[in-house]
Amino acid sequence: xxxxxxxxxxxxxxxxxxxxxxxxxxxxxxxxxxxxxxxxxxxxxxxxxxxxxxxxxxxxxxxxxxxxxxxxxxxxxxxxxxxxxxxxxxxxxxxxxxxxxxxxxxxxxxxxxxxxxxxxxxxxxxxxxxxxxxxxxxxxxxxxxxxxxxxxxxxxxxxxxxxxxxxxxxxxxxxxxxxxxxxxxxxxxxxxxxxxxxxxxxxxxxxxxxxxxxxxxxxxxxxxxxxxxxxxxxxxxxxxxxxxxxxx
Length: 248
Hints:
- Helices cover 75% and strands 0% of the residues.
- It is mostly helical.
- It has one domain.
- Helix 5 (66-85) runs antiparallel to helix 6 and helix 10 (187-211) crosses helix 11.
- The longest helix is centred in the last third of the chain and has 25 residues, at 187-211.
- The protein is globular, with a radius of gyration of 18 Å.
């Protein structure tokens, strides 16, 4: 079937799912202080950041621009994924993951928190949808790649959080979602996705730190992880080839 038809179908599905994201956000309970401290533990600038009241999830969900922004962004990303991958089982988990990722990007950018009430259900859904995608594709080896993606990407962020205090634990949880999603697609997606997350996060952190140098505030890392993972889907093959990587 035509890649354009697949792109259109994915755009429509992702955009439709994005319509309900603000309602999900509005129902989230506010984090306890201890939970918020765990989420941001190790985030650059946390100790020196000035105290400021967190934007309530309900207020964020009520922003007039949120729903149309999520719908447009999810539709665009879904169209790119559909045009890139075509009619493949990977769409079984990527289509619902796109609007959730868009919501997480906005929430982390505005609050510097990645709510477990969003990530844990997503993680559980992937545990069901990724094996279903493998059945659709009749490719059980993709399950091993997904598991290795979880290990490589999630393990990288966990080690740096545990040993060096880099990032917050919310970023580690997010890495455990993005790792299997990329791993299912291939080794190039794992390696290029991880590289893009690190490079974009470093560049974004520098720019945000320079912009808010007088505040010495912490900055959100999740949006750069999500952007890097999304870019890896259409560009991993070309970037891996440019870097001299040969698929195993």
